[in-house]
Amino acid sequence: MFVDVAKIYVKAGDGGHGCVSFRREKYVPFGGPDGGDGGRGGDVIFKVDPNMRTLLDFKYQKKYEAQRGENGGTNNKFGKDGEDLIIKVPAGTVIKDAESGRIMADLVDEGQEFVVCKGGRGGRGNSRFATPTRQAPNFAEPGMPGEERWVTLELKLLADVGLIGFPNVGKSTILSMVTGAKPKIANYHFTTLTPNLGVVDMQGIKSFVLADIPGLIEGAHEGVGLGIDFLRHVERTKVLIHVIDASGIEGRDPIDDFYKINEELKLYSEKLSKKPQVVVANKCDIPGSEENVKRLREELSKHGIEVFEVSAATNKGLKEVMFYVSNMLDNIVEEKEDYEVYVPEEKRFTYTIRRDDDGAYVIEGSFVDRLLLSVNIYDSESLKYFHKVLEKRGIIEELKKMGIQDGDLVRMNDFEFEFVE
Ligand SMILES: Nc1nc2c(ncn2[C@@H]2O[C@H](COP(=O)(O)OP(=O)(O)OP(=O)(O)O)[C@@H](O)[C@H]2O)c(=O)[nH]1
Ligand SMILES: [Mg+2]
Fold this sequence. Notes:
By secondary structure, the protein is α/β, with parallel strands linked by helices. The protein is built from nine helices and 18 strands.
């Protein structure tokens, strides 16, 4: 099965929590703090695997989570870092942030890697909070959560040249004649259901990759026929070989065919419709095609498009096409992909302050959630540290600006306290 789009959930590992612990030694009644730091959570990383051809794996597994960091231990033992999770993808996979639809990475080269979610930092253990005046800190930091997001994966085949045209015009026949690929060929429409790739390797030319996609028909951009889904796979090509049935055996006019397909291309993507084209007038072994080739030549010379007289079935005229195309490839300057890489803001800890109906100052947000995890409200040292963090973050200052007075109530989730200057 050929799968070329997928939406998956990825989450990096959370950091391990710092540990609260005190040394216990024989004959030492009051040991110092010895709680170790938590380990870092593992990252989620995409990596190009040259053996993969489709995104089929992602049809079955949709959730990917890296390992969390271990919690810190007693005796200043560090928690082990979580292992990174490496997700293999085929070359040509575009990674998008599902929420914004923006491109985060385009993985093209063998072995190329991209960190899509960073693991959370481990929390510091209580031994790190010991100071000359705070010899027995009864609190530690919790680990930071790992980043998480939904991403869409889109496979865009890596081919230099694409074969396009109506169904049954002989695209797959051409691929089978000039490359080692063995696509299905038959005398009916939509024989080809998924893209095929082959390498054109002839003496005297630089080899290139040729892609054959399912046939297009009028209304393709609206999803008629196999729709335009497969046009994605010729987006990276540099040249299009537009195959036209010159025999007119199916009752269509070859010149009409040319314009109709180009109209569909344009409706799908302006960029695609501007790619250089070469026209292959195929099935020239069928009587009556000569006249059509002449008309095609006349018409397309207006657009500066070369028309080749071909009989793919008997392998006539194909070599000339491949030489011509290869020459075109040599002369096309590689254009830079013109998208902007989207780097989502790292999840920072945020908070807001507002007044409640009862006059209390309410502080809420992820910063508060995390801070409260590290507070031991039964421990005065811990509360002092807590107060210090509020001060450092500028929250006390902000409260004062809002007009807070001694004795006013401050509420953070379930935790309330009276403000004292
Ligand atoms: N007479 C003649 N028949 C040809 C020629 N090239 C291809 N055919 C026949 O045309 C039919 C369609 O060929 P395919 O290569 O499957 O066409 P396609 O464009 O890939 O078709 P779809 O995959 O359906 O879009 C087959 O029966 C081929 O044998 C040719 O040069 N001359
Ligand atoms: Mg085909």
